[in-house]
Amino acid sequence: MVIKKIGILTGGGDCPGLNSVIYGIMLKAYNSNVNCIGILKGWKGFVENDTIPLKIAEHDDLHTIGGTILYTSRTNPFKGATSKQEKAKELTEKFNELGIDALIAIGGDDTLGVADAMHKFANAKVVGVPKTIDNDLAGTHYTFGFWSAVQLASNTLDNLTTTAHSHQRVFVVEIMGRDAGFLTMYSGISAGADIILIPETPFDLEKDVIDVLKKRVNAGYKYHIIATSEGAYPKLESLNRDFKTISKEAIDKLPKDPFGNPLLVQLNISQIIVKELNLRDDLKEEFQKNGVEFECRSVVLGHTMRAGTPNSFDRILGLRFGLAAMKLVLEGNFGNMVSLQGNKIKVVPLSEGVKKKYITAENDKMELRDLLVKIRYLSKQK
Q: How many degrees, rounded to 5, is the angle at CA 112 between CA 233 and CA 70?
């Protein structure tokens, strides 16, 4: 089959580099006499036939611009469907209505999971490009947007250190990361955060936070930066023993997004940690004993981490992903996802690529985190 027109959609949360991918696709498509249409607002626009023409002459240097010109949403077209197989066939029939021969879907595990089901159950001509600011897709070493977000968070932690020093404060900084702690770990290590809390290793408030702050202030430290993922979670033992402001029942009742994931951002873990620390008279006494007034504040980076233009790495990675995805379409190599393995662009099946990945116990970043916390106060003990 000769490919004459392709559709492009971006789904899920936005991040720097989405426009870079779109531009990479358009460059190769134009050179191959293939027309592109943009499907607006992700799967929502796909279902509702909401499209725009994409003419490369109107988008010079699109790869330098942040966000996505196609808009995005977290729409789940399978929600409420009685049969996933029948729904996949119904969605694939939309190709005819949209007038497209193939589709390139740019998104994370939810967005690409839809594309994978369409290919699996209806042999849809789809290709995936991995997009998640959390970098938690198993099929690729890095996703575009991740390093831009890491740099932003690292810069923010650096900047907060100066005000923490000036006011002798404890800052608890909440960084994106629902299930995986890559953003918090990388930016926390980069900026030298004093405590780093991630979803992969549930924390003990007494051991991992209170005791460390006491040891640090006794070693002479006047300020402290705690970097926490939005999905960082206390151990059940610690939750029952140490926490006064939340319970397991409250966490279990968190609302869900359209794909059924708990909205952990609504937990406001940084604010909870601040509240718990402010209730600890023993911690305040330890600070005062060392001539430091205890003052604790929370900062939530939130959507600022998705904002702005992509850095050079993410611009180039986005362009490479777009180029590679368009090549797969031209080759008829559907049901696959492009990925970065080392410094090379590889191809993996969508079904494998959209699986989750996490920071594992043997990861050297885990050891670096623990050493950063421990060695600094140990080296200054009198």
A: 105
Helix (H) or strand (E) holding 170, with range, is strand 170-175
d(CA 313, CA 112): 23
The second-level CATH assignment, the architecture, of 147-306 is 3-Layer(aba) Sandwich (3.40)
For the stretch 297-332, pLDDT in tens is 999 998 898 889 999 999 999 999 999 999 999 999
Active-site residue, 364 included: no
* Active-site pick, 134, 179, 194, 242: 134
pLDDT for 5-30, tens place per residue?
999 999 998 999 999 999 999 999 99
- CATH code of the domain made up of 5-144+310-353: 3.40.50.450
What does the buried/exposed string (b/e) look like for 351-373 if buried means 16 or more CB atoms within 10 Å of the residue's CB?
A: bebbeebbbeeeeebbeebeebb
**What pTM, to 2 d.p., does this model score?**
0.92
